């Protein structure tokens, strides 16, 4: 009991840090962690006129394309406006293909309104369009719309799948293999679910590729203390920017089959492939090319989203997952589980539909759509190259090529003295580095420790999304800062 | 191992009903359960030309106003169209207040796009508008925007709060008190989290009101085997349609204070009050009227949504929660937890903003807005009355007044013979009844067993949302069916 401002006695809270759910306390999510909080404070200080050695904060901490100035695809937004306010269907200002898409989506909605709940698994015709998109993408490998679940962004699908998988206690607790470095949604979800996180390290020397021997030894070690049930892959890679080879995917599938692991393929960057000689191969396509021994057996969930690629429509929280070879009873449980949350946001479902059913040759919006799409992807490819090139000119920074996705995850050499100073402050050395970078230059990056890295190595993740002029400033500032930092602590 | 169609041996699945998460298996959600699945099948059969004793399925199973023909508020949809496709700001077809709202929302979005992620807690200016709305609603009781969290519908907020609360094992496992009958999101979330569901029964004889003595005895009993930490209230009630009196809310708050329970007030139907002499009182307002001994101490989370009231915009998945007297460290954990899912859908946030910042007197859209709002609420009030009146003319059906919300939860007398037949089929007797009603009349209601009810009593929940002409058909058919059913099994 303590006295409050109002002069009454205040009791202890019911819900305190000691009485709350301990698994929630274990959750960490660096992409929106302390560094981003501080960046937002600094932005506020700048608005209030506080003097800083810079005039704006440049945020390269999160894959948020529109926030960095990328323009939405005109066609998508026209259809969304038509769906929101169908009166516009009577106006002459929209192309016929946009109107047709809107009419088709509205017809599939209860009462012809995007304000109605959809089926929990998603609007029927959207799932059918997703299935046809997957079939085209995978050279005709069949896709059953009943295996497609629309989601609230890819994160929602990933967490739902993990939720199905996790059970047991002690040595029989479910273990899930995730890459290191990883996208911290995975570690956060596993912490919250109380599952065992099994790390497998990507090979930085080989452009962040997956090593079969590493998978094997990591799994063997994990089997001593938990029950490994699933293997998560992010391809193209976040935060690594790596694009997996067909051979690698084949190896991973054979490994999963042999070791009896459920595969989760996070393929939200499937259109973001920039490097010469690299190509996106879906896990599903490779699985089916390996023949029925694999395609009839290996359980796979694949995730996609409206938030990345050339769309960058994060705010709509659209996405889908496809489940392959899932046990029928489990799938019924999945369908039940998603029904509790009623349905994914319908505007996001509509947007997902447009992504998988974009304007076709001959339709009035096709040329503009292709121009916008190509321009966005070409610009990203340029910025990927630029980022790699400039970072590699900095002594003490080594940067793998950004083959795909939207991120660079360069290795940074930190002087011993800075590591000691960070540790004295109880900070990860790369957090100390990134925080100093933010304070001195206004650049917001995420320390490698938020994604995981080999002990004794340090990194940061930066997005390649800022507009080219700002990206150049950012890279120049990082270069200058790194040199100054190295001198200061040498 | 078994042989598949392709002639290869199929292995056992990694993920089976026996190896999956057992807490997920315990989840039930009647509002979208087997009866709704069957209704969808029947709709498909009707489309395929299968002959039935009816020509359409009338769905009164879910509070989905637009699906039942309710029209969206014009102003809301105009602003959403403008936000989706800002080119429209250059057109003359939209009123200035709609354009101003859209500009304000877009300015608050990263890159001026609703396709950017927002802050995880929600867009700043939307949270500020929510805070001002709450202050107006509660006669000036202050609201700090930092205590407002935008959510993906109210369900998301409720599950998040429960997630924070649940911990412990065995006799120290967290218990959460919920009303019976309840909205099955609560039981589903508690099952999934492995928390103990503590039932308190509403008093059907007193119009489904809360009894203090029932709360006390239910809590005392629960303390023997778990650690009760929270008390959930739905007001106006789902599925009961009851509106709580100010006195009752006061009693509940005093009870929560005395017994040290965290209060969760589901207030998504706050505009849906129809009955003479009934009024919505927010838990927060009453809490502050009780003075600092309560308002400085009792922990409360209150939930609202864009899905109900006069808006009925379920598909957008918009909502907010306000937390009051939450421990600062716990609130930091809450903020971290919501950051993992990045942000609620931005169109839903925009819509929430319009609800709390609707057209004001003097603005060009005000008259139309008020006309639409009033028409929708008046129609709902009429249908509430109609439902109660007609159902009460049926021998064997007793129906409390629908004071608020969107549902009636009448008591149905079932003949002994039907109860026996249901039990022989392994069905709840009211499920047996509702399933037969569906097959014979095409009317889709949800059995009371999906919401919970006193042993030996039977109910169904029906929404009052169908258009008046269909609602009349529905009620007439229910009447006829009930009489036939009673005869058949007597």
Automatic annotation (TrEMBL), chains A, B:
A Pfam family it matches: Aminotran_1_2
Q: In which pathway does it act?
A: Amino-acid degradation; L-alanine degradation via transaminase pathway; pyruvate from L-alanine: step 1/1
Catalysed conversion reaction? L-alanine + 2-oxoglutarate = pyruvate + L-glutamate
Keywords tagged on the record: Aminotransferase, Pyridoxal phosphate, Transferase
Q: Which stretches make up the Aminotransferase class I/classII large domain?
A: 92-476
GO MF terms, alphabetically ordered: L-alanine:2-oxoglutarate aminotransferase activity; pyridoxal phosphate binding
CC terms in the record's Gene Ontology section: cytoplasm
* Enzyme Commission number, as recorded: 2.6.1.2
Xref: InterPro entries: ALAT1/2-like (IPR045088), Aminotransferase_I/II_large (IPR004839), PyrdxlP-dep_Trfase (IPR015424), PyrdxlP-dep_Trfase_major (IPR015421), PyrdxlP-dep_Trfase_small (IPR015422)
Q: Name one GO biological process term.
A: L-alanine catabolic process
- Show the CDD domains listed in the entry: AAT_like (cd00609)
Question: What cofactor does this chain's UniProt record say it requires?
Answer: pyridoxal 5'-phosphate
Query: Family, per the entry?
Result: Belongs to the class-I pyridoxal-phosphate-dependent aminotransferase family. Alanine aminotransferase subfamily.
PANTHER family in UniProt:
ALANINE AMINOTRANSFERASE, ALANINE AMINOTRANSFERASE 1
What the protein does comes down to: Catalyzes the reversible transamination between alanine and 2-oxoglutarate to form pyruvate and glutamate.
- What does the record note on quaternary structure? Homodimer.
The entry's protein name is: alanine transaminase
Can you name the source organism? Answer: Oncorhynchus tshawytscha (Chinook salmon)
User: Gene encoding this polypeptide?
Assistant: LOC112260666
């Amino acid at each position: 009991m303590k006295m409050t401002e109002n002069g009454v006695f205040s009791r202890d809270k019911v819900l305190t840090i000691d009485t709350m759910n301990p698994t929630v306390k274990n959750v960490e999510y660096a992409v929106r962690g302390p560094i981003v909080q501080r960046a937002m404070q600094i932005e506020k200080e700048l608005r209030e006129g506080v003097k800083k050695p810079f005039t704006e904060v440049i945020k390269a901490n999160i894959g948020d394309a529109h926030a960095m100035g990328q323009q939405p695809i005109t066609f998508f937004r026209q259809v969304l406006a038509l769906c929101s306010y169908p009166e516009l269907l009577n106006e002459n200002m929209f192309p016929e293909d946009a109107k047709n898409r809107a009419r088709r989506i509205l017809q599939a909605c209860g009462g012809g309104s995007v304000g109605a709940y959809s089926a929990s698994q998603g609007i029927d015709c959207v799932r059918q369009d997703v299935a046809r998109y997957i079939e085209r993408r995978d050279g005709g490998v069949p896709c059953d719309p009943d295996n497609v679940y629309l989601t609230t962004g890819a994160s929602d699908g990933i967490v739902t799948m993990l939720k199905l998988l996790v059970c047991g206690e002690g040595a029989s607790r479910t273990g899930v293999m995730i890459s290191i470095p990883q996208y911290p949604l995975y570690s956060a979800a596993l912490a919250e679910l109380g599952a065992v996180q099994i790390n497998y390290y990507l090979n930085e020397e080989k452009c962040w590729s997956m090593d079969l021997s590493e998978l094997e030894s990591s799994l063997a070690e994990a089997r001593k203390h938990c029950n490994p049930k699933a293997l998560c892959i992010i391809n193209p890679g976040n935060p690594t920017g790596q694009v997996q080879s067909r051979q690698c995917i084949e190896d991973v599938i054979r490994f999963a089959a042999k070791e009896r692991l459920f595969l989760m393929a996070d393929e939200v960057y499937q259109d973001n492939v920039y490097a010469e000689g690299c190509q996106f191969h879906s896990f599903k396509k490779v699985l089916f090319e390996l023949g029925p021994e694999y395609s009839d057996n290996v359980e796979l969930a694949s995730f996609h989203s409206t938030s990345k690629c050339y769309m960058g429509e994060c705010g709509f929280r659209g996405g889908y997952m496809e489940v392959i070879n899932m046990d029928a009873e489990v799938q019924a449980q999945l369908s039940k589980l998603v029904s509790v949350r009623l349905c994914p946001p319908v505007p996001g479902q509509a947007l997902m539909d447009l992504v998988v059913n974009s304007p076709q040759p001959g339709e009035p919006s096709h040329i503009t759509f292709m121009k916008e799409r190509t321009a966005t992807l070409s610009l990203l490819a340029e910025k990927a190259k630029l980022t790699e090139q400039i970072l590699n000119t900095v002594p003490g920074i080594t940067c793998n090529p950004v083959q795909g996705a939207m991120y660079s995850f360069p290795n940074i050499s930190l002087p011993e003295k800075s590591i000691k100073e960070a540790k004295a402050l109880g900070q990860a050395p790369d957090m100390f580095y990134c925080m100093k970078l933010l304070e001195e230059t206004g650049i917001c990056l995420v320390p490698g420790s938020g994604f995981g890295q080999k002990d004794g190595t340090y990194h940061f993740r930066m997005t390649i999304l800022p507009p080219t002029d700002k990206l150049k400033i950012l890279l120049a500032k990082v270069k200058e800062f790194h040199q100054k930092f190295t001198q200061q602590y040498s």
